[in-house]
Hints:
Oligomer: single chain
Radius of gyration: 16 Å
Strand content: 25-35%
Amino acid sequence: MTFADIDNMIVLHGPILARLTDEEFFDLCQHNPTLRLERNADHEIIFMPPAGAESSRKCGEVLFQLTLWNRQHQTGYVFESSAGFTLPDDSVRSPDASWVPKATYDALTEEQRTRFAPVCPTFVVEVRLPSDGLAPLRRKMETYLANGVEVGFLLDPTNETATVYRRGQEPEEISSFDATLSAAPALPGFELDLRPLRRG
């Protein structure tokens, strides 16, 4: 077992956290901009470590491909990792890349858009950092599906493996980055080319 195989994230527990309102949690994050914070359904606060340069580059590549597809289709909005979403289970999550349909996002009020938008993305991507435990990331992907995500990609650049999650289906394991991942039917025509994420 390696360090990255275990739950090595920092999580704050305590009854006072359960009493934090959505507005108070948002304000906490705004007053601590150097910290990347998420909140699970139990209102425990999770500290997300900053990415190394190589991991950030690979997240940027994913975001670029998704944005390019969206520019061509113009059916929704693309978000990067600093965007927080309040999911139906009251957790607040920040996928590395995500996509929300235009009609869904446009229905939000201006105030909702300036905070952690109360909407679940249709599509999400998580890129595993070398220090990330795989088990918590898999649980996170399952949580996304339970809250309404239709398709999600979990990418592991270190081992060059990927897992495709589709609501109502078993996860599909991909053992090579010499491949593309389809986000159909949620994002018709979007295929993530994994080759730019290979080692080297």
